[in-house]
Amino acid sequence: MPAVEQISLTGMDAASAFPRVFQASQPLGLGDAVSWVSQYQAQVESQLNQSGAVLLRGFGLATDTDFDGVIQAFGWPNFTYADSLSNAVRRNRTERVFTANEAPPDVSIFLHHEMAQTPIYPSRLFFFCEQPARQGGATPICRSDLLLTRLAAAAPEFVRDCETKGVTYSQTMPPVDDLDSGQGRSWRSTLSADEPSAAEAKLRQLGYQWQWQDDGSLSVTTPVLPAVRELADGSRAFFNQLIAAFFGWQDARNQSQKAICFGDGSAIDGDAMSLAIDLAEELTVELAWQRGDVAIVDNFRVMHGRRPFQGERRVLASLVA
Ligand code: FE2
Q1: CA 42, 45, 47, 53 torsion-angle sign
Q2: Within 10 Å of residue 123's Cβ, how many Cβ atoms?
Q3: From the CA of 26, how far away is ligand 1's center (Å)?
Q4: How sure is the predictor about 268, in pLDDT bands with cuts at 50, 70 and 90?
Q5: 306 CA from centroid of ligand 1 (Å)
Q6: How far is the CA of 282 from the centre of ligand 1 (A)?
Q7: Where exactly does CATH 3.60.130.10 map onto the chain?
Q8: CATH class for domain 4-103+118-135+287-320?
Q9: Does residue 101 register a pLDDT over 80?
């Protein structure tokens, strides 16, 4: 089997780099990649737990089924898109693998923790670059634990409110998928419901409030969700969807600045959100994709997004329960 070495993309020490990178000297192909995972999984997990993101590069993986094989080699439980309340439109390639987001190339997807705007979220994410964009299209990643520390120093009152009040998210879902929006998943698909009555039953069970609109779309507000999460090692992270919602949930049905508020109904200050996005950008690292890259992201510690791009970009994803 070709050698795999831990390297750094940023000039930082390889052992403390973000993300941690495992680079193969020669393409492995699926069989050897699976063997490598079974041999080095503990090391990958340890690096993932320390840094929040791991990149496997040069492993010679080409297709969605190669990606699926590597995912299965890790043996972690699947988190299905069908059961999720994700608001992005996606297409499944295999049972575990789907297209990352069908939103148009010029749409920026702001930093977020996957599905932190719902009560059900994945613990880890896999990404796979099947086809890098001609230009742009990086996946920005940002450590939310470091962000919370910076925010707490700069805006202690805002962080205290996040901790004590929690947050709610409001959003209007179309009756059929809207492919022009990064949040265009229909209420039928989101709630796995054909009929309004079934949608209402699901929302009631999840503690949401809702209102039907004349055009058949459905406006919903989540129950109060935490905005800060304690991680397994005792550190705390800005685990929420506030940045993506406040700056990005803009489409034919939604005005992004009205998408969030504190759990007691009080408004979230726009200045605090501007500070949060500025500090997050300072901490952000660009995952500039190369064909065949596999990235693993700790969804509790690290936010991700998508930069605009030109050309065709196919980045696939898979979620871990
Ligand atoms: Fe995402």
Answers
A1: positive
A2: 14
A3: 31
A4: very high
A5: 8
A6: 20
A7: 4-103+118-135+287-320, 145-280
A8: alpha beta
A9: no
Strands 20-24 and 53-57, bridge-based pairing: parallel
Q: For residue range 108-143, what is the model confidence (pLDDT) as tens digits?
A: 899 999 999 999 999 999 999 999 999 999 999 999
pLDDT (average), residues 184-201: 93
Q: Which residues surround ligand 1, an ion (CB under 5 A)?
A: 114
DSSP string, 178-201: -TTSTT---HHHHTT-SSHHHHHH
Distance 291 CA to ligand 1 centre (A): 20
pTM of the predicted structure, to 2 decimals: 0.93
Is the preceding omega at residue 19 within 30 degrees of 0, hence cis? yes
When pLDDT is cut at 50, 70 and 90, the band that residue 222 belongs to is very high
Fold annotation for 145-280: Double-stranded beta-helix (3.60.130)
The answer for residues whose C-beta is within 8 angstroms of residue 159's C-beta and 6 or more apart is 148, 151, 152, 228
Task: Please report the pLDDT score of residue 255 as a whole number.
Answer: 83
